[in-house]
Write a structure and sequence with these properties.
The complex is a heterodimer. Chain A is an alpha/beta fold. Chain A is built from eleven helices and ten strands. By secondary structure, chain B is an all-alpha fold. Chain B has a two-stranded antiparallel ribbon with strand order 1-2. The chains are: A alpha/beta, B mainly alpha. The complex binds adenosine-5'-diphosphate and magnesium ion. The site of magnesium ion has 3 residues of chain A, from helix 1.
C-alpha cells in the first residue's frame, strides 16, 4: 500500500535516512525496529509529509505522494502519531478529539452564521464519535480534562484516539509505548489489534518493546544507520546476523532488546 | 483634607483616561498577540496597520459628513468603521498574498518574518502619509461629552469636576463588545477552535487536516478588524497622526508581551497594566495629594514622576523588567 523507493534525507552532511526502500502491505501491522538514531522517525516524517526527502519517492496505492503536505495526506487517509505526544494543550480531551477531522464546514468563517444548522449537525456527529472513542480507550473519565494536564501515557492514548475519529487507511505510530505503563500499553495493543481487524486499518509501529512487537506485528522491518537491514517475522529478524551486529554496536540496552 | 474631591480628581485625571487608553492598547495588543500565536512572528507593521484602518475610516467619515450623513450624538466615524475595517482587511490579505505567503512556504524563521514586517511597516507608513498626509487630523463629531466637568460640579456640589468624554464611553463599550465577541468566537465556534488548535500545535493541526491557509486568512481578517477598531477609538479619543500610530507600537507590544505573547487574556491585562502605569507615572499628583493630605504635608511641587514627554519610557522599562524576570509574561504565553 505504501512503497518507499530509495529515500534519502540528509541534514547538512548527515545522512539520517540513507537510501531506504520498503513496502508496507495493506492490512498488516508492520513493526519498524532499529537502534536509536537509525532514522525511523525521520523516515516517518518523510512519508507523512513533515519533511521533504533529499531524494527518492513515496507512493500510496500507486499514487506518488512524495512531499505532499500533511493535511492533504490526512484527507487521503494517512495519519501518524508523534514519538513525543502532541496535543492541543489549551483544549479538553473531548475538544482535542473533536478537532479531527479538520476541514469541517464550520472552519469557514461565514458558515459560523450562514450554516448554523449544518455545523450543529456536524458537531453532534463528532461529539458522538468522540464519546465512542473515549469509551473504547477507557478514558471517558478524562473527557473534560485539559489535554495539557494528561500524563505521557494518557497523551499517547489520546493520539491513538485521534486516528479513530476518521476512517484512516494507514496509521504510523511512533513509539506508542514509550513511557507508558504495562496496563496502558496493553490497552493500546488491544486497540491497535481491534482497529486492524474490525476497521481494516493498516499500521506501521515503531517500538522498542519486543514483547509488544512480537505480539502485534508481522512482518517486522529493521533499520540501522538510515538503511533497511532486513524484513521478516520477529524470529527471523532476531536471527539475522546483520541485525544482531547493528544492535551489538549500540550498547547493552539495545542489545538486550534482541536478546543478543 | 477632602477625600471626596481627591477621589473625583483622581478619577478625572487618572482612572477614566487610563481605562480608555488601556482598552485601546488592549485591542491593539490582541492583534499583535493573535499574529504571534498563529503566524508566529512579531508584527512590527501593526502600528501602521492601525493607522491604515483609521485613515480609511476617516476618509469615509469625511465623505459621509459631506453628504450630510451623521450618527446623531455619536461620531460619524462609527458608521464609517465597517468600511475602514474592510479596507484594512483587504490590505492585510493583499500583503499576505504578496509577501508573507512566500516566506511561509519557505518555512522562514520568525526573525526573518520580523524583518519582513519592518519592511511592510515602512511601506504602509508611506502609503498612509501619501494618502492623508503626515499632519494631525481630527475627525470626532457629535456630542463631545457625556458628562461635563461643570455639570458634574453642579450635580454634586463638589469643587472638582469629573468629565466623561463621549469617546471614552464609546471606547469602553466598543472594547467590551469586541472582546466578548472575540472570546466567543475563539472558544465557541469551530473556526475559532481551529485557530486555537493551530496556535497550540501547528504540526498536529496540519496532521489533523486543518487547512493552514484558511486559518491564516481568518487571522488576518480578525487582526484587520481589531487594528482598525483600536486605531479609530484612539484617534477619536486623541487625534489621528500617522507618526503617533507608529509610536503606539511600543506600548502595544509592551502590553502583549507583559500579558504573555500569544495569550489573548494576557493582551487585555497587559493593555491595562501599561496604560495605568503610563498615566499614573506621568500624572502630576499635586492636586490629588493636596486634597487627601493634611495641610502641613501638602506638596509644593507638581509631584510628577516623569514628564509626559517620557511616557514611552514607561512601557520600555516595564517591558525590560518582564523580559528579565518572566519572559513568558504574566499569563504564560509563548516565550520570546
Ligand atoms: N532535524 C534534524 N537535524 C539534524 N539531525 C537530525 C534531525 N532529525 C534527526 N536527526 C538525526 O538523524 C538521526 C536519526 O534520527 P531519528 O530518525 O530520530 O532516529 P530514530 O527515530 O530511529 O531513533 C539521528 O542521529 C538524529 O540526531
Ligand atoms: Mg525516533
Amino acid at each position: 500500500m505504501i512503497v518507499v523507493e530509495d529515500v534519502h534525507k540528509h541534514f547538512g552532511g548527515f545522512h539520517a535516512v540513507d537510501g531506504a526502500s520498503l513496502a508496507i502491505r495493506e492490512g498488516t501491522i508492520t513493526g519498524l525496529i532499529g537502534p536509536n538514531g537509525a532514522g525511523k522517525t525521520t523516515l516517518f516524517n518523510v512519508i507523512a509529509g513533515v519533511l521533504k526527502p533529499t531524494s527518492g519517492r513515496v507512493t500510496m496505492a500507486g499514487e506518488d505522494i512524495t512531499g505532499l503536505p500533511p493535511h492533504t495526506l490526512f484527507h487521503k487517509g494517512l495519519l501518524r502519531t508523534f514519538q513525543i505526544a502532541h496535543e492541543f494543550a489549551s483544549m479538553t480531551v473531548r475538544e482535542n478529539l473533536m478537532m479531527v477531522p479538520g476541514g469541517q464546514s464550520g472552519e469557514r468563517i461565514w458558515n459560523t452564521w450562514l450554516a448554523r444548522r449544518r455545523i450543529a449537525e456536524e458537531e453532534r456527529v463528532l461529539q458522538d464519535k468522540a464519546e465512542e472513542v473515549l469509551e473504547f480507550l477507557t478514558i471517558d473519565h478524562l473527557a473534560d480534562e485539559r489535554a495539557g494536564n494528561l500524563s505521557g501515557g494518557q497523551k499517547k492514548l489520546l493520539e491513538l484516539g485521534r486516528t479513530m475519529m476518521v476512517d484512516a487507511r494507514i496509521v504510523f505510530l511512533d513509539e506508542v509505548g514509550a513511557g507508558v505503563n504495562r496496563t496502558l500499553l496493553n490497552t493500546i495493543g488491544d486497540a491497535i489489534q481491534k482497529l486492524n481487524a474490525e476497521r481494516g486499518y493498516t499500521f506501521v509501529v515503531i517500538e522498542h518493546d519486543m514483547d509488544f512487537i512480537g505480539r502485534l506485528c508481522d512482518p517486522v522491518i529493521c533499520m540501522a544507520e538510515g538503511k533497511v537491514l532486513a524484513e521478516g517475522s520477529l524470529e527471523e529478524i532476531k536471527a539475522n546476523e546483520q541485525v544482531i551486529e547493528a544492535y551489538l554496536g549500540t550498547g547493552l540496552k539495545n542489545r538486550e532488546m534482541v536478546g543478543a | 483634607m477632602d477625600l471626596l474631591n481627591a477621589l473625583v480628581a483622581l478619577s478625572n485625571f487618572v482612572l477614566v483616561p487610563a481605562i480608555a487608553y488601556g482598552a485601546q492598547l488592549a485591542l491593539g495588543a490582541l492583534g499583535v498577540t493573535l499574529i504571534y500565536g498563529i503566524l508566529r512572528f512579531s508584527n512590527f507593521a501593526h502600528g501602521d496597520t492601525m493607522a491604515f484602518g483609521t485613515m480609511a475610516t476617516i476618509l469615509v467619515t469625511w465623505w459621509f459628513q459631506s453628504m450630510g450623513i451623521g450618527f446623531g450624538p455619536l461620531p460619524t466615524a462609527l458608521l464609517a468603521l465597517p468600511f475602514g475595517i474592510l479596507a484594512c482587511v483587504l490590505l492585510l490579505i493583499g500583503t499576505d498574498r504578496a509577501v508573507y505567503r512566500f516566506y511561509r512556504a519557505q518555512k522562514a524563521k520568525p526573525v526573518i518574518l520580523v524583518i519582513v514586517s519592518i519592511g511592510v511597516m515602512f511601506i504602509m507608513n508611506g502609503l498612509v502619509r501619501f494618502i492623508i498626509g503626515p499632519g494631525d487630523q481630527r475627525f470626532a463629531d457629535g456630542e463631545r461629552f457625556i458628562v461635563t466637568a461643570r455639570d458634574f460640579q453642579a450635580m454634586t456640589g463638589l469643587d472638582e469636576g469629573l468629565a466623561l468624554k463621549t469617546t471614552q464611553g464609546i471606547t469602553v463599550v466598543t472594547a467590551v463588545i469586541v472582546v466578548a465577541a472575540l472570546f466567543w468566537f475563539l472558544n465557541r465556534t469551530r473556526t475559532g477552535k481551529s485557530m486555537r488548535a493551530y496556535s497550540d500545535n501547528e504540526d498536529l493541526a496540519l496532521l489533523s487536516g486543518i487547512d493552514p491557509e484558511r486559518v491564516v486568512l481568518i487571522t488576518w481578517l480578525i487582526v484587520g478588524a481589531l487594528a482598525t477598531v483600536a486605531g479609530v477609538l484612539y484617534g477619536l479619543d486623541k487625534s489621528f497622526k500617522p507618526f503617533t500610530y507608529f509610536q503606539l507600537l511600543l506600548p502595544v507590544f509592551a502590553s502583549a508581551i507583559v500579558g504573555g505573547l500569544g495569550n489573548p487574556l494576557g493582551a487585555i491585562a497587559g493593555g491595562f497594566i501599561i496604560a495605568f502605569s503610563e498615566v499614573t507615572i506621568t500624572y502630576a499628583w499635586k492636586k490629588v495629594l493636596g486634597y487627601s493630605l493634611p495641610e502641613s504635608l501638602e506638596p509644593s511641587g507638581l509631584v510628577q514622576l516623569l514628564s509626559t514627554d517620557y511616557k514611552f519610557a514607561v512601557s520600555f522599562v516595564i517591558l525590560l523588567i518582564v523580559l528579565l524576570f518572566r519572559p513568558t509574561g504574566l499569563f504564560r504565553g509563548k516565550s520570546v
